[in-house]
Design goal:
34% helix; Rossmann fold; Hypothetical Protein, Haloacid Dehalogenase-like Hydrolase, Chain: A, domain 2; 276 residues; alpha/beta
Length: 276
C-alpha cells in the first residue's frame, strides 16, 4: 500500500459547513481503517472541544490536538507530547500581559478562559467573529483569578490569544518567533496560537509516523488554513481543500474538493484505491 497514515484537519476539512462529519466521510474513514490506513484528526482544538462523534469514533485510534502539542493513543492512553513547560509558559504569559489580549489556555485536553473577559462586549472588543465567540461560550471553562490559575499549570498545550490592536499582534508575533523554543500561527483574524516549536501539526505527523515506523513518503495530510501549512509540507502528499486559504493552496501538491463535498471520500476514491 502506498499510503499508511492520513492526518486530516478538522474545521473546514473533515467537518462540513454544519460542523458535522458527513455520513460519506464517516464511511470513508471506516473503509480506510479496514484497508490498514491510520486516520488521524488533527486540530487546533483541544481534545474535549472536538465533536464527540470524532473523539469517540471506534475507527479512530490516534487524535492530534492543540496544534500538535499532543498526540493521544485512545487505546493505551499514551501521549506523545510537545507542551510548554512551566518556564516557557510563564515567559509567554508574562509577555502577553504587556498587551491588550483575550487568552484561552489549553491544558489536559480542555480550554480555559478568564471569566472577567468572557462577555459579548469583551468578544467584540477583541474582534472575535460569531463562530469563535460562540465556540468559546460553548466549550471553554471560565476561571476566576485567571492569572494565578494559568501560572499554576505545570504544562500548557497551547495558548490561543486574540488582540485588540494589530500592531501589538505583529510585535508579539516577532517576539515569539525569535525565541528558539516557541512558534505561533494564526487560525483566525486578530489571533495567534502559540505553542512549543516541537509542536505544530507537521511535527505531530512526523512524531507519530516515527513512533509507528511509517516512512514520511507513506503519509498524507489534508487541510484548509494557515495552521495546516506545516503538516502539508511535512507529509509525503499534501492536499488542500477547495476552500483552502491561498497560501496553503500554493504549497499543496494538489487541490481536492470543497469541505461540503466529502473530502475523506474523495481521498479514499482518488488516492487510496487502485483507481486513484
Amino acid at each position: 500500500m502506498k499510503y499508511k497514515l492520513l492526518f486530516s484537519d478538522l474545521d473546514g476539512t473533515l467537518l462540513n459547513s454544519r460542523i458535522e462529519v458527513s455520513e460519506e466521510n464517516r464511511l470513508a474513514i471506516r473503509k480506510m481503517t479496514e484497508m490498514g490506513v491510520i486516520f488521524v484528526p488533527s486540530s487546533g482544538r483541544t481534545l474535549y472541544e472536538m465533536p464527540q462523534c470524532v473523539r469517540e469514533n471506534p475507527d479512530i485510534r490516534y487524535i492530534s490536538y492543540s496544534d500538535g502539542a499532543v498526540v493521544l493513543d485512545r487505546l493505551t492512553g499514551e501521549r506523545l507530547c510537545a507542551c510548554l513547560d512551566r518556564t516557557l509558559s510563564h515567559l509567554v504569559l508574562d509577555m502577553l500581559a504587556e498587551y491588550d489580549t483575550l487568552l484561552t489556555v489549553r491544558n489536559g485536553g480542555r480550554s480555559y478562559v478568564d471569566e472577567s473577559k468572557n462577555s459579548l462586549a469583551d468578544h467584540e472588543h477583541y474582534r472575535l467573529n460569531d463562530l469563535y465567540s460562540n465556540f468559546i461560550y460553548a466549550t471553554n471553562n471560565p476561571v476566576g483569578d485567571y492569572d494565578r490559575f494559568v501560572h499554576s499549570l505545570d504544562e500548557i498545550e497551547m495558548i490561543c490569544v486574540f488582540f485588540s490592536n494589530e500592531d501589538e499582534l505583529e510585535e508579539c508575533r516577532r517576539r515569539i518567533n525569535a525565541h528558539p523554543e516557541l512558534t505561533c500561527t494564526p487560525s483566525a483574524p486578530h489571533n495567534l496560537e502559540i505553542f512549543h516549536s516541537r509542536a505544530g501539526k507537521g511535527n505531530a505527523l512526523l512524531r507519530l509516523a516515527d513512533h509507528l515506523g511509517i516512512p514520511r513518503e507513506q503519509t498524507i495530510a489534508v487541510g484548509d488554513s494557515s495552521n495546516d501549512l506545516s503538516m502539508i509540507e511535512a507529509a509525503g502528499l499534501g492536499l488542500a481543500m477547495g476552500n483552502a486559504w491561498p497560501d496553503l493552496l500554493a504549497l499543496a501538491d494538489a487541490q481536492i474538493c470543497h469541505h461540503d463535498d466529502h473530502g475523506m471520500k474523495y481521498i479514499l476514491d482518488h488516492y487510496l484505491t487502485e483507481k486513484g
